[in-house]
Inverse folding.
């Protein structure tokens, strides 16, 4: 499956009139990548209404790559990529990415360049919410690497190994399996550290009787996998098994609520109510999930106060957790794709409690 | 050596009057980390003139960590971290980080919170340019890991191994040696790919007769190492050896020009003139170097049009390159610390041409 970047740019251009703009200056790197295929830390793209083609600016470090992969786009070599493109839009009403462009950059471009800048909220992110099948296929690959790495690293998780060593083993195995790098900083939290949702893996060794939570994923071709599993090292205590079963039931409820047309609030509530009914409402302090794609966290977000409804072909995580300070915690997370009816599960590792 | 975060906050508070501000809202994550020690993707810090202490806001995922490592700071648990702190500054003239805060966030906070927002350019980055000895020590560690990984991976670089495999070997070895992760996406460019300064490592195998450029480094305790070496696989051709000698001579000239009081322009020129004199002015299209610390690219920058002068205790890279499209390239880069006189070299790998 190939990606049609020109079609994406055409969709963006078609949205400009309703944003009261003649053109849009895309400066957020991941959005430039979405619209051109170019991954660069210094690039910008000008997309205009009508017949005028797109213009891509980047600096000498990326110019050869840009010419190779964007043969159908006019390319400008310039270090001040935004300044160069704003200059090309003199006299136009030029939309800029208000959620990304720093206020100093907004003033610099507005003062100097003769275009009228129109701050617009996330014009490219809106297009990115619903994925095409080529993107979903890339996510399938990233999630398959993640599943396989977890299976391969399970034998490493035994008393004495440190959180950091487990994280490194997962990351090394993902790289061997073809990941470009980890999709985000891996979380490995053993025993009481499991009560910290975003614990950084440290030198604590795993002990018999620990629950160990691992939240990690592969980045592959720009797309991010995200999975969390909690395992028991040694036979779990009653409270540990009860906590696990509760979170697993909540996660199932969240997955089953995920379908086209469901509200972001209702999907969150389906899982949250299970946890609240068990008396743990105060121990699940974060949202239920988030979209994934070219960013690890992107629209839509699932939470009690999140707006909007789920659409078909939206990859998203479902990741309830219960955190008991001083004792530990459980989180279970899958990456799924919302569909018309049942979601497609991309992370396929078992959700049975693994006792190692 | 321990880090005195309170002293850093006091220096920031002392700078507020000249910025015409009563308080500053720090929202850039790496700056929050510099001032508190907390590494979080969602945290903000309020620093005020006078007796009022600092206030740190973060969400449930990081709150336990914040309480543990910042016992001397008032801590607020809130998802909207910037909104919560702006509310605490009602009536004040509140400096915000104009180079970081998105224009939409600037309008949101300004409209709703009763503080008068004052966009200020990089108030914390200014403090971060000159490092304390504890920071330089962390950079020494990151650079030592980088050197050792390079030495250990040299035997891997032989005909048939791919760019990607070399990058993975470097990254795995850095992790084994204690790195938290790579400081940036590693560059490995073999043969003609060496003409692309920021080439992404791919499936091209190394061939006898290639120059291979590797630009990589370790991230350790938040601090970034950055080193580039170019090696020859098999006996180099005359043009390859000449190119290497030229870049090496330019890099030496740049290092020797680096001292307290030198202008950023002059340090760049010292290296650039060597390359220009050999007829390659057009083949060195990027700046000579950049500061390193909690970010991989930070002030000061060395380039033909860069302002400012070098100070004592400023870690910085010196990295000239010559790139010949279709043929290949050479880049040689060290991380150094500018001192009163001779710079301190942190990356100690030989700059003799290694023929593998």
């Amino acid at each position: 499956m190939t990606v049609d970047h020109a079609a994406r740019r055409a969709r963006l251009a078609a949205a400009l009139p309703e944003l009261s703009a003649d053109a849009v200056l895309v400066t957020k790197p991941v959005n430039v990548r979405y619209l051109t295929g170019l991954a660069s830390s210094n690039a910008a793209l000008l997309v205009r209404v009508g017949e005028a083609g797109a213009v891509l600016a980047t600096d000498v470090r990326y110019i050869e790559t840009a010419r190779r992969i964007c043969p159908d786009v006019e390319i400008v070599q310039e270090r001040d990529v935004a300044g160069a493109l704003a200059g090309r839009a003199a006299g136009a009403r030029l939309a800029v990415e208000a959620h990304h462009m720093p206020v100093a950059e907004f003033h610099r471009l507005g003062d100097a360049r003769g275009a009228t800048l129109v701050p617009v909220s996330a014009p490219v992110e809106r297009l990115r919410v619903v994925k095409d099948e080529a993107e979903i296929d890339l996510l399938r690959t990233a999630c398959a690497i993640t599943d396989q790495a977890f299976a391969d690293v399970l034998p490493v998780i035994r008393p004495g190994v440190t959180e950091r060593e487990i994280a490194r083993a997962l990351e090394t195995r993902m790289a061997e399996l073809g990941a470009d790098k980890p999709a985000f900083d891996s979380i490995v939290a053993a025993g009481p550290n499991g009560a910290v949702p975003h614990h950084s893996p440290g030198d604590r060794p795993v002990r018999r009787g620990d629950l160990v939570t691992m939240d990690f994923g592969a980045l592959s071709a720009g797309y991010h996998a995200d999975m969390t599993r909690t395992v028991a090292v040694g036979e779990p205590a009653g409270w540990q098994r009860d906590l696990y079963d509760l979170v697993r039931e909540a996660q199932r409820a969240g997955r089953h609520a995920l379908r086209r047309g469901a509200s972001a609030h209702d999907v969150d509530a389906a899982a949250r109510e299970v946890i609240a009914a068990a008396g743990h409402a105060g121990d699940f302090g974060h949202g239920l999930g988030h979209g994934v794609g070219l960013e690890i966290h992107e629209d839509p977000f699932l939470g009690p106060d999140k707006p909007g409804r789920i659409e078909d072909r939206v990859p998203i995580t479902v990741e309830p957790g219960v955190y008991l300070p001083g004792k530990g915690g459980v989180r279970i997370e899958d990456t799924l794709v919302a569909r018309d009816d049942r979601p497609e599960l991309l992370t396929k590792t078992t959700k049975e409690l693994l006792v190692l």
User: Anything to note?
Assistant: The mean pLDDT of chain A is 95. The first strand of chain A starts at residue 23 and ends at 26. Residues 133-153 of chain A form the longest helix (21 residues).
